[in-house]
Design the sequence.
């Protein structure tokens, strides 16, 4: 380590005094030839240059005595540097073992150090050429020749000095370990050699370089060599500084943040806000500790509180973590309600709330009975209620929940396309939340609610993942005890939940899901059932809801029939209930306004309350027509009567089908036509028709897409009617697929179709023979009202549906001769 006179401030006073003493020691006089003799001290490294100060440390007793002797006898000290610095001791005290040049030095007062050694300040005086070791014992005595320093400044020297100074300046800028004063000091040195030595000392060059510099007698050469080393050093320093600044900017950012956080915390403490924050966190922690969370969520919640403690209350992340903790705290991890497994009680409630629905009621009572006998082993069955809207699926679910004493919750899956809607978004998303399943569980507040998943047949599926597969996990008893939500990230137990799904159709439910479920059908209702439901359930409920239950108002059966026939057209009773509600509200208003209100709602009054009818009793409108037949169709809303029209026009033998018909339906049109062509002779149809006229099949209500093969026999019937001029009976409805040879194949949805025919007031229903077995599901009343004709072949269909009388002339293509005749006339 080198000390400079300029940084005396950093010395303690004793050192600065010692520096003064050193400056007072005069140079030792040399003889005429420049020879001096002095006491020798051996050093391993070149740490002292002429004119510069450096502390030296002395442990060897011999050296201590040498210095004391020199001071006492007013002799000079000559420092020898070992040739081989690695050696601790010189192999022998020969001149050859030392650098040819040493340094004459003035040594200050010895100061004893705590470890027993001594330190002293030394100031280099002159370079000396070592001539001879005069004496080795008891002290080393050395003879040397003073090397005169060339102080002449040529232009070259000046240029060298300036370059060196510039380089040094750059080094000082880059290397923070060199005090800036060193540069000022260097600028004030006027001797070239001194400048070189001073800079060499100031730079922390290695010993090899220092040796080299010591040995150069010519100041110019010293400056040259020095500038080379300085330039090299600058290269390294610049590289270092570049790396450093890159690292620094990284470190700086995080340090700055930490620093600012700390400051903010301090400010908050000053303002008393820090205390509130700490108190809040403590309360939160206590809440978690006191909660009945299972181990894992508790651990996670406490860990998050710890994270909060590391944060200032203003940090935007705080909100995110807080709501995460809230979610953990508010989810029902363990809380359950006790099941009421009393079968008679359940039966009473189901009966109280719902008319009919025999199968569904039986299944639920069986379930409860099994549970009450075998409470442990309970793999919850997953029920799927399938049926048209308004048939009581949801309200039946509610009743089950009430019977069991469970909390009822429901969530609609209609239009859910994104897996994240089921399973939530990861918390790294802004505004992330758990998926619908856990949101609904939180709403339920217990771990064992009755959970209704509505519209499972309307589940979408696109690039954002498949919600059905997430649902599979929800519904699978093997997996749902550890349901994973992306937001929560802690497995959640859904195994105690009783899941019930609902759907309008089974067709669009992913098969893997359908596999897991037990399907219970909710059929559409016939008129009699609707009237019963209205009288027993809908009317009392609506009166109660509108506060008129005490007015003793009665609905006539005829009035209800009118609402059903003219104001609603549905498989279920949702609209019926709504219309009844409207009537009740109107009466409530009359009563409130003090006006008179009817005690009996008769059929005539309906129009007064409900505006003009929306639907017209179907058969009133219709008569037997040529080219028009009625097909029974199945839709998600239940069965429908679908009218099919066929027109035969001049043309080129094309078949045209319109009314938004799907591919399958178009094909069954083609099949029907082929069949008709193949039997044309038997029906007395002119074969030319098929070449010279177009057949147009249209299914009205064109905005609604229609598809399926079951209209096949109806299209064929309408075609034959149109081509023969024989009308189709308007009281007949039919359904069945047709083959090219006129066989009739079975179809689906028999029950709904038959109910629709009944609703529409048809008298006869033509069904494929194979579908006869499906009629067990059709209420007896309907079966007795309708004439059901099972068929195997088109011939049977036509026998029932087609009149024998030709009422209009069958279409006839114009003959060639006629055309020619016409042309000639023109
Ligand atoms: P879904 O869920 O099948 O679309 P809802 O459960 O919403 O049908 O039923 C519509 C309304 O009809 C409800 O008020 C319900 O109570 C009533 N309802 C349906 N079926 C019956 C029934 N069999 N007995 C009594 N009320 C019924």
Sequence:
């Amino acid at each position: 380590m080198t000390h400079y006179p300029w940084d005396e401030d950093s010395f303690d006073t004793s050192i600065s005094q010692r520096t003064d003493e050193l400056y007072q020691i005069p140079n030792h006089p040399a003889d005429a030839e420049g020879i001096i003799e002095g006491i020798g001290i051996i050093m391993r490294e070149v740490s002292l240059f002429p004119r510069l100060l450096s502390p030296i440390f002395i442990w060897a007793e011999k050296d201590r005595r040498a210095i004391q002797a020199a001071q006492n006898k007013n002799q000079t000290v000559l420092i020898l540097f070992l040739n081989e610095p690695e050696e601790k001791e010189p192999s022998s005290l020969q001149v050859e073992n030392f650098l040819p040049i040493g340094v004459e030095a003035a040594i200050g007062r010895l100061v004893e150090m705590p470890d027993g050694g001594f330190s002293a300040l030394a100031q280099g005086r002159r370079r000396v050429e070592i001539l001879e070791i005069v004496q080795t014992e008891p002290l080393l005595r050395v003879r040397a020749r003073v090397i005169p320093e060339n102080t002449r400044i040529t232009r070259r020297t000046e240029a060298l000095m300036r370059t060196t100074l510039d380089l040094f300046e750059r080094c000082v800028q880059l290397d923070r370990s060199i005090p800036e004063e060193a540069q000022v000091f260097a600028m004030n040195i006027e001797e070239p050699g001194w400048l070189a030595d001073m800079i060499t000392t100031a730079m922390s060059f290695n010993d090899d370089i220092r040796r080299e510099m010591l040995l150069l007698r010519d100041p110019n050469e010293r400056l040259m060599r020095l500038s080379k080393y300085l330039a090299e050093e600058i290269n390294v320093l610049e590289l270092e500084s570049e790396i450093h600044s890159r690292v620094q900017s990284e470190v700086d950012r995080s340090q700055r943040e930490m620093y600012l956080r700390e400051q903010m915390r301090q400010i908050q403490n000053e303002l008393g806000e820090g205390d509130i924050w700490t108190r809040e966190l403590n309360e939160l922690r206590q809440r978690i500790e006191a909660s009945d969370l299972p181990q894992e969520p508790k651990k996670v919640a406490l860990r998050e509180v710890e994270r909060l403690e590391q944060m200032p209350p203003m940090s935007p992340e705080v909100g995110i973590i807080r709501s995460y903790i809230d979610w953990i705290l508010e989810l029902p991890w363990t809380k359950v309600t006790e099941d009421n497994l009393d079968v008679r009680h359940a039966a009473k409630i189901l009966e109280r709330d719902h008319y009919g629905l025999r199968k569904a009621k039986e299944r639920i009572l069986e379930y409860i009975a099994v549970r009450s006998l075998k409470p442990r082993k309970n793999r919850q069955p997953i029920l799927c209620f399938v049926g048209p809207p308004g048939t009581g699926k949801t309200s039946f679910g509610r009743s089950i929940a009430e019977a069991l004493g469970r909390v009822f919750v429901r969530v609609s899956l209609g239009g859910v396309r994104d897996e994240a809607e089921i399973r939530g978004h990861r918390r790294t998303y802004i505004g992330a939340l758990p998926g619908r399943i856990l949101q609904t569980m939180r709403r339920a507040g217990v771990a064992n609610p009755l959970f209704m998943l509505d519209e499972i047949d309307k589940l979408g599926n696109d690039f954002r993942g498949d919600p059905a597969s997430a649902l599979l996990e929800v519904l699978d008893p093997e997996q749902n005890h550890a349901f994973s939500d992306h937001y929560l990230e802690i497995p959640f137990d859904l195994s105690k939940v009783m899941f019930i799904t609902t759907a309008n159709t089974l067709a669009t439910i992913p098969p893997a899901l359908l596999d897991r479920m037990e399907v219970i059908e909710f059929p559409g209702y016939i008129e009699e059932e609707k009237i019963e439901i209205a009288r027993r359930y809908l009317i009392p409920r609506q009166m109660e809801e509108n506060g008129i239950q005490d007015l003793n108002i009665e609905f006539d059966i005829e009035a209800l029939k009118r609402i059903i026939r003219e104001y609603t057209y549905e498989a279920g009773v949702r609209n019926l209930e709504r219309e009844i509600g409207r009537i009740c509200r109107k009466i409530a208003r009359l009563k409130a306004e003090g006006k008179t209100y009817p005690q009996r709602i008769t059929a005539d009054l309906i129009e007064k309350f409900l505006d003009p009818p929306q639907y017209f009793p179907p058969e009133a409108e219709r008569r037997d027509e040529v080219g028009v037949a009625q097909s029974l169709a199945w839709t998600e809303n239940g069965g429908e009567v679908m009218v099919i029209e066929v027109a035969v026009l001049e043309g080129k033998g094309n078949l045209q089908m319109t009314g938004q018909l799907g591919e399958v339906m178009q094909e069954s049109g083609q099949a029907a036509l082929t069949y008709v062509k193949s039997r044309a002779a038997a029906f007395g149809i002119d074969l030319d028709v098929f070449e010279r006229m177009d057949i147009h099949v249209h299914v009205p209500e064109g905005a609604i897409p229609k598809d399926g093969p079951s209209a096949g026999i109806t299209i064929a019937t309408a075609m034959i009617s149109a081509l023969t001029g024989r009308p189709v009976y308007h009281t007949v409805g039919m359904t069945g697929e047709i083959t090219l040879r006129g066989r009739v194949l079975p179809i689906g949805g028999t029950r709904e179709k038959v109910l629709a025919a009944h609703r529409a007031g048809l008298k006869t229903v033509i069904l494929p023979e194979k579908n006869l077995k499906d009629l067990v599901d059709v209420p007896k009343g309907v079966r007795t009202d309708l004439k059901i004709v099972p068929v195997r072949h088109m011939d049977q269909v036509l026998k029932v549906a087609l009149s024998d009388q030709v009422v209009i002339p069958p279409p006839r293509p114009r003959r060639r001769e006629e055309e020619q005749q016409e042309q000639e006339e023109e």
